[in-house]
Specification:
Number of domains: 2
Order of helices and strands: HHHHHHHHH
Largest sheet: none
Number of strands: 0
CATH class of the largest domain: Mainly Alpha
Radius of gyration: 24 Å
Distance between the termini: 90 Å
Helix content: over 70%
Shape: globular
CATH superfamily of the largest domain: Tetracycline Repressor, domain 2
Structural class: mainly alpha
Low-confidence stretches: none
Strand content: under 5%
CATH architecture of the largest domain: Orthogonal Bundle
Number of helices: 9
Mean pLDDT: 83
């Protein structure tokens, strides 16, 4: 009689304390490199800062820096993704409560978004400058990454808009369309601010909130021109 034997499944290997320490050290070194690169890009411009400059300012040999990042474009992508993730984290915080007025949450989203860009305008400007000068492959890769982050942004907005529709405080429109409209307005304001550094961004945010939540039609006026 043949007995069936069942091989014991081995438990997943646990990381050793040494491996965990090395991972933490690498993570910290990566963060340090990104901060050094951000400062150099802001001071010298994206084209004016080389991998050798970043390595020297980070205290690394150039070859060591390439072990962390394959090139300057990868550093820029990481910087941008890191900042977008920070923004998404803040937006999740201001929309976390399911008991708040959806209108108040949309206001907080707009103000949080604009205040976030005011914290480090140099990074935004150098990103746009580098984008215009990068080759197609870099722009395509960065664009795909930004698209994924944009979908995460929409996923944060949609539950707020859905609650507003159910509560009757927002028009009965598809939440995805409203989310896309709001992010489009925010991006348009940010692009204008980049071109016009003296623009009062908080005031522009107040106007955006008014337009998004109340529309532009005067009270008591209805109908469309024929």
């Amino acid at each position: 009689m043949i007995r069936k034997t069942h091989a014991k499944r081995s438990a997943p290997a646990r990381a050793t304390p040494l491996a965990l320490r090395k991972a933490r050290e690498r993570q910290q070194r990566t963060a340090d490199v990104l901060e050094v690169a951000r400062r150099l890009f802001s001071k010298r411009g994206y084209e004016g800062a080389t991998m050798a400059d970043i390595a020297a300012a980070s205290g690394f040999a150039v070859g060591t820096l390439y072990e962390f990042f394959p090139g300057k474009e990868a550093i820029l992508r990481s910087l941008l993704e890191e900042r977008i993730d920070q923004l998404l984290g803040r937006l999740r915080e201001v929309t976390a409560s399911r008991d708040d007025d959806p209108r108040a949450q949309i206001e907080r989203v707009v103000r949080t978004h604009l205040a976030f860009f005011l914290e480090d305008p140099a990074l935004l400007r150098l990103t746009l400058s580098a984008w215009s000068g990068s080759d197609f492959t870099v722009r395509r890769d960065l664009g795909e990454r930004i698209d994924r982050k944009h979908r995460e942004y929409l996923a944060i907005l949609m539950p707020v808009l859905e609650r507003g529709v159910r509560a009757g405080v927002f028009a009965p429109l598809p939440p995805i369309r409203m989310a896309v409209a709001l992010t489009g307005l925010l991006n348009a304001v940010i692009r204008r601010w980049v071109r016009e550094p003296g623009l009062d961004l908080p005031a522009e945010g107040d106007a955006l909130i008014q337009i998004f939540l109340c529309g532009i039609s005067r009270p008591g006026r209805s109908g469309a021109s024929r």
